[in-house]
Model the fold of this input.
Amino acid sequence: VRFQSYLEGYLYKNIDLVPEITHYATYCHERLAFMVERGPKMGSEKPTEKTLCHVMQLPVKKSIFAATLGEVMNLQQYSHPNHHLPWVLTLLAEKIVEYGGHNTLGIFRVPGDIDMVTALKSAIDSGEYTSNFPTNDPSVCASLFKEWLRELYDPVIPHDQYDVCLRSCENPNYCATIINDQLPNINRLVVTYVIRFLQSFLTEERKTATRMNADNLAMVFAPNLLRYSGTDLKVVMDNAESEMKFVRTLINHLDTSYMDGVV
Done:
């Protein structure tokens, strides 16, 4: 805590200096606040030189991680001009399927190796994944799929819809109305795409192989789709069940057929 306070003060003092320093100080101050809120990531290996070089570029090169949905779509408007969805989301979903995720025990629940997740994240953000995709482990791809959603600057289901989602968590019609009528268009597309993807795991054969049914998937994905805006841990714990029920209702009942073929 003492180091955090010192670092915050040091960065804050440098925010109003020359533009080059201000830019880096502002970025680092924002990232520190993000880490304080979400917690640090702890891997078993030191970051590679390639990962460190990538991180050093982030203050001047926008990332598709920890951004807003609008920023992500703006970043891909030239590289993926015909995509209606964030390409990173569809890429990871495709890789999960390609590498056998539909038949992987505990997919989404059992985390992938954190160092491999970090390496994959760096490769995707830097564009190096195109020549040599760094993993064929579906659990690594599944972990990053969740992480991308969880790290969005604003939750994919906006804060102003959070309370009504919990109040209507077991009402299929009202849950569908929230998604289809109350969300910004890009949020609606992302949520519906994610739910459609999760629904693809619910054939009897796949549930037997993965041991992941709608309840399990909802429990894992609720924190990645919904985010309580406060800091009261008791409220967080109290709301967890309703969050899970809301996502389970979407998985079991939301009509996602119109997303067929949408990328």
